[in-house]
Amino acid sequence: MDLKLKGKRALVTGSSSGLGESIVKMLANEGATVIVHGRNEDRANIVCREIISNGGKAEIALGDLSTDKGADEVASAALKNGQIDILINNAGATSHKSWGEATTDDWSEIYNNNVVSYVRMIQRVVPQMKTLGWGRVIHIGGGLGIQPIKEQPHYNATLAARHNLSISLARSLQETGITSNVVSPGAIINPMVEDWLVNAAPKFNWGTDLEEIKSKAVQQLIPNDTGRFGEPEEIAGTVAYLCSTYANYISGATIRVDGGTIKCM
Length: 265
Prior knowledge:
14% strand
């Protein structure tokens, strides 16, 4: 399927590694010019060069989105060579502190990193989208924003805020041609998660084979209808679809890509 992204320019925050990297590569494969964002120039350059070597078009925007100055730098670099048609807010931080461990400073810091950073980019990119009469804003949320657990309450709350602000933004953009949606991943496998699983395996008696470890971890920690972890490309594919013209009639939605982990409508 042609997602009709040729000629579009997409900024994906936090795309020098992880889930953001998968998203930016898929959008580039679909013909969009992508702006790879990160704080580490070397990592961003590696992703950018890989996209270009595969026939894609890529640029770099460096900056720390937890500050207004950093957000200004990112927006300026991203808009230097043309408009931004698509903004994917993906950058953020995680924290595994409990209610007894997370201080009010921890709450403030993660809210700034995970919510205010999204707002910073919306404020710097969406106004020029309005002049285009078309645009996409997609926020990466998470299942813990819908079905929180007792651990990491400050992190859970930031995911809920992302979902909420995305819907509010959609209402404010009515009849502009710009849509705002959330993609809410479940547990996604990546090298960091695999390392954690291997290290945790002795504690839970999951064995030593990686595939067996992953299977048992799903059963005990994140039971879902598919019986497995998600893959980064499955999130990226959902994002790419929402960027396409086929998704013109989708706005203010939360699309769960979690294998049925969340047990609600």
